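Tokens as discussed.
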């Protein structure tokens, strides 16, 4: 059991130094087409000494209209009614102050988050897409962290 605990802590130490990462979400285009909205969460991960962290990708149809069509190139495209898709990204982290940037499809937005106030921070409209690919990458860059010292949190 001690060896397993040491391996977990060694894995944490390796991940603790990472401040940039890219997660690629697999998008269920059929579900998005029919529901008009889709939330996808990354697995939990460690970065910049924080754990557990999680990214969330949120897609939703702008306005009303049909669900579009899945093209032969594997993209969900608008159905000719100038339909667009709002694409948002969020970071979930334990309590603490974190400055970070989220990027999707060439658009980047910065955040100065206080995770003690809200469990997730991000933007619903980080980018507007005319077509949704079957895979979409979200890049997280952690700029600064001020996390509470273990044991300094008030009891739950």
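Sequence:
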């Amino acid at each position: 059991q001690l060896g397993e605990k040491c391996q977990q802590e060694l894995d944490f130490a390796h991940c603790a130094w990472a401040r940039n990462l890219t997660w690629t979400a697999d998008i269920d285009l059929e579900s998005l087409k029919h529901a008009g909205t889709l939330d996808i969460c990354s697995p939990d991960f460690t970065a910049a000494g924080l754990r557990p962290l999680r990214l969330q990708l949120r897609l939703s149809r702008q306005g009303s209209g049909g669900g579009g069509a899945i093209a032969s190139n594997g993209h969900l495209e608008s159905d000719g009614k100038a339909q667009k898709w709002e694409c948002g990204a969020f970071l979930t982290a334990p309590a603490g102050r974190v400055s970070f940037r989220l990027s999707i499809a060439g658009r980047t937005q910065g955040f100065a988050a206080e995770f003690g106030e809200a469990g997730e921070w991000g933007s619903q409209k980080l980018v507007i897409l005319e077509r949704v690919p079957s895979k979409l990458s979200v890049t997280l860059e952690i700029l600064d962290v001020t996390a509470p010292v273990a044991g300094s949190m008030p009891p739950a």
